[in-house]
């Protein structure tokens, strides 16, 4: 999956309904989310269409209804979503941000084993210094001694 699959918070709400129910109608999504999100029926249709246009959702017609579903798993889309967020911050800050995510998440011993394993593997390709690749003027890394490339 590419960058174009990065989805907005509103689209994410829709996708959760699709993942939980496999196939949904626009009415069903409205019943689940209308009140919570303060959406009109037309809002749901607009969001479904945006996801269709980007081929994150597909639809099939049954009678006079459209059924929406997805070929993507929650894990795949969540990965794009989370990695996309990390791309928005300076590369030199990603490591500390990952530590912050760990500190602020509820994790099991099994989760920690997975994380430790990932850290061990990553050690083999770690660099001595992460370079800032930000646009000049969008980052103050240089002041902190980091180099632009
Ligand atoms: Zn930077």
Counted up, domains total: 2
Shape: elongated
Classify the helix fraction into a percent range: 40-55%
The ordered H/E elements are: HHHEEHHH
**Associated small molecules:** zinc ion
User: Which spans of ≥5 residues are poorly predicted at pLDDT below 50?
Assistant: none
Classified by CATH, the class of the largest domain is Mainly Alpha
Q: Return the CATH architecture of the largest domain.
A: Orthogonal Bundle
User: What is the percentage of strand-forming residues?
Assistant: 5-15%
Total of DSSP H or I helical runs spanning 4+ residues: 6
Give the tally of β-strands: 2
**What's the story with the biggest beta sheet?**
2 strands, antiparallel
**pLDDT average, as an integer?**
91
CATH superfamily of the largest domain: Winged helix-like DNA-binding domain superfamily/Winged helix DNA-binding domain
Q: What name is given to the CATH topology of the largest domain?
A: Arc Repressor Mutant, subunit A
Spatially, the strands of the biggest sheet line up as: 1-2
Terminal Cα span? 27 Å
């Amino acid at each position: 999956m590419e960058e174009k699959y990065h989805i907005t918070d509103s689209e994410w709400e829709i996708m959760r309904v699709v993942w939980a129910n496999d196939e949904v109608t626009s009415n069903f999504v409205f019943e689940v989310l209308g009140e919570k999100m303060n959406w009109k029926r037309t809002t749901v249709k607009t969001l479904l269409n945006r996801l269709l246009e980007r081929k994150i959702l597909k639809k099939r017609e049954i009678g006079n209804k459209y059924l929406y579903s997805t070929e993507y798993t929650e894990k795949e889309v969540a990965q794009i979503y989370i990695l996309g967020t990390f791309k928005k911050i300076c590369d030199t800050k990603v490591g500390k941000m990952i530590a912050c995510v760990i500190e602020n998440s509820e994790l099991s011993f099994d989760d920690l084993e997975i994380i430790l394993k990932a850290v061990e593997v990553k050690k083999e390709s770690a660099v001595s210094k992460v370079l800032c690749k930000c646009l000049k003027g969008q980052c103050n890394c240089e002041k902190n001694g980091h180099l632009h490339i």
